[in-house]
Each structure stands twice: as structure tokens, then as C-alpha cells.
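Exam revision sheet. Question 4 asks you to relate a sequence to its structure. Input first:
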Amino acid sequence: MMDRRSCGVLCHISSLPSPYGIGDLGPEAFRFVDLLSRARQRYWQVLPLNPTDSALGNSPYSTYSAFGLNSLLISPDELYAQGLLTQVQLDDCRAAGDEAVAFDKVYAAKSRMLAAAYAAYMKRGFGSRAFDDFCAGQAYWLDDHALFVVLKRRFADACWADWPVGLRDREPGAMTMAAAAMADELRREKFSQFLFYRQWMALQEHCSRLGVGLIGDIPIYVNYDSVDVWRDPGFFKLDEQRHVTFVAGVPPDYFSRDGQRWGNPVYDWDRLRATGFAWWIKRVRHNLAFFDLVRIDHFRAFAQCWEIPAAEPTAVHGAWRDVPGVELFTALQEEFPDLPIIAEDLGIITPDVDALKERFGLPGMKVLLFAFHTEPEKSRDIPEHYAPLSVVYTGTHDNNTIRGWYARDISPVEKKNMRTYFGHEIPVPEINQVLIEMALRSPSLLAVISLQDILELGEEARMNKPSTVTGNWKWRFAPGNFTSAMAERLAALTMDTGR
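Answer key, C-alpha cells:
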């Protein structure tokens, strides 16, 4: 857990340089870790590693498998080095381009790549023992994940609730027949997961060798059309036909008259409690195999969640429901005594959420771009008001960059409050340095800086704009943008601020 003042950088794998259309787990990831080490950064934070889908807006927070891994991030260079791709096949991966992520091209190119790698593996039996060991060790999630993916493909991407009843309800006979009929397809899907797993473990070892910890991200909810709900429908509020009855979201507020209706099924916490919260324990354990710390999104819903009847088109007619968060985190603490979890507690937070967080010693989040919404003496995001057990961010994946915010989003009230706080107006060329240093000098034990802010990029480098469904998750930085000179300057500031 966070045991001393430290800092890190937020940058998703997909944003790394690569000639293959999307950042991956190959050479540029290792070079990035080298630069983080040179910059004296103790952590690298990424977004969820789960599979993405164009039908879901390519969001890593909207996935069909909470345990699965995103095969788009597999490195072609590593497969070529292992003899699983020819030069021609490697060159074919370049068809996706080398600028912003063009997801349609990437999905097509990586699909061809994985098919070629699997064919080479089957022909040569490359690493068969390691693959078999992986399949056996990960069977608790991998078998169902692979079957779900293959069945989705077989039924033209239809939702699992619309599959033939035997498969929808996971009747043993139907499941056995499907697995036997599609054995090669299942093995191919498992092989893709194996490739990701092996490449990640090599990267993780490199991080460990250089003293760079990894921070992951767990979305609190899962999608209805997911292997997770198909496999364990009893853990979610569904009717007898396995249709969702209540969905998640947040109520109306000052910023949204209708609230937000996310559409994810809500948990049946009584049934989860009856199992000793085994599903959540398994999910956290699974993530801690990949990360040193994990951030859990929308922590507020572990105290109370906003339940919306599924038939409602907006979040207006929802209701708050109590959640057994104390019992859940007691069970998690028994399994993971240090509870290496960061609580995403942004937005309107009630005393019960703070009490839950404090009872288990979980650090919450502060975001500097929110610091000037109100007068400095009242702002929870002004550093003078931080508790040491917290994590400060310049911004998150959902925010504009510092430069983009200062140029386009900052309100007159925020400008006034900034002048009051600093005693003068900050010139545009200085704003990034000022806020980064502000984060690093704060009392928070951990400070995390978005790479876009280190690079002093504008709105064009924004990762995601909430409530929009297109144009997100595409940003990448080019080779050479993050330089050794930048790393050395960041190292000097890190030492100067006692991190």
C-alpha cells in the first residue's frame, strides 16, 4: 500500500507509440517504463485492461468480460520475435496507421494477426506446456470467457439473453455440446488471452525490476450483455426470464436535470452476501495479479446505489438503496489485509461514503481541475484541505487536459478563485508547471500526473468526454514526445517536492 510520499503518471497502454494503430505491450511500453524510472516515478497508472468493443464505444469501462484481457493491446513485435508472425504478417499490422487510434482498422488488423499467430502456434506447438498451464490456472474465468466470445460470434453478436434457451440458461448438456462443437475456436480465443497474459507478465517484471509499481482500474459495474451476468445471473437483479429489472446510474443534480442512466444491471447484494462476497473477492484477487494498487470506480455505490427501474428512460425515478459495504470490505480485508485499493470518491459524497472509506483506511481522490469551482477556503480539492491518505490527480481520463481546460473550459468564477488563491493570474505558458508542482507539493501521499499534462498538450489530447459516444479513447503520443530531458526535469521536481 502507499507507505511514503510518491508520485506516478497516468497513461493508458493504448496511448503509447506504435506503428500498429494502437499502443501495445511491446518495446515502447518497456521504453516508457525506463523513462518513468528515470523520472523517479514510483507508479504507472493505466485504465482497465478488459476487452473493448466498437459497439460499446471502445470504452475500457464498458466491457463484455470483467476478467478478460484486451487482445488489441498484444504486441505484434513480440509475436514476430517469437516466430509467430512472418515479416509480411508483421507489415500487415501496420495497416491500422500510427496516429490516433482508428479502432475499426485496429480490430481488423489485430484479428488477422491473432489468426496468423495461432496458426503458427498450432503448426509448431510453440510453448504448448506454458499455454496448457495457463489454461488450467485461469480456468475459473477463462473457460466461460472463451465460450461466451465464441457463442457471440456464432449468434451474430446477439445478446446472450436471446440465445437458445439451453445456452441462455447454461444447461449442462447444451454447454457440453457447444464446447465440443467449437473446440478449436475456444482454444484460439484462449490462446489470444494467453498471449496478452504472457506479454503483460514480462512488462510487469520489467516494472518491478525498475521499482515502478502498476495501478489498475476496476469499473464497479459490469454490462448486462457480458459473460459475467450470463455466468452468474443470480448476482444481479434480473427477472425469471433473466431480463434486467433495475439498472445503475446517478440521480438528477445541478449538472443534469435527468440524472444519468448508465444501464448496467445492479447487484443483488443479498445473494452476494450469502456467498461471502466470493465474486468480488475473486475479482479483486484477479486484478491484484496484474497490479500493485487498484482504483475502484464509483466507490460511492458501496454505501448506497441509485437503482432505476429498467423501464424508465431516465434516472429521475430511481431510488437510493443501501449496500452492505462494511460487510464487503471486511471480507476483502480478510483476504487482502493491506487493502491496496484507491476509492474513486469524486462528485457529491455523503458522510456514509466517507465513513466507509475511513473505516478501512482507503485513500480517496482529489482532482486539481476541480479545485477552483468554489472559493478556496471552501474547496475540498484545494491542497491545503487534503488529508495525507489521499491521491491527487491533475486530471483524470474524463477531464480535459490542463491546457485544454485553461483555454476552453475554465469559468469566470474559477478564474476569479484562481486569482484569489495565487494572488495573480497565471500566464498560459506557466499553467501546467504551476498545477503539476501544486499536486506534487500537496499533502497527499500519492500524486498522479496525466502524461498529457506533462507534455503540455491541449484539448486535442483529451482521452474521454463523458456523455458522448464517439471520438473517445483515441489519443496517442508520438515517438519522441516524452523525452529524456522531460524525464530529468520531472525527476528534479519529484526530488524537490519530497517524493
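Marking note for examiners. The first helix runs from residue 27 to 38.
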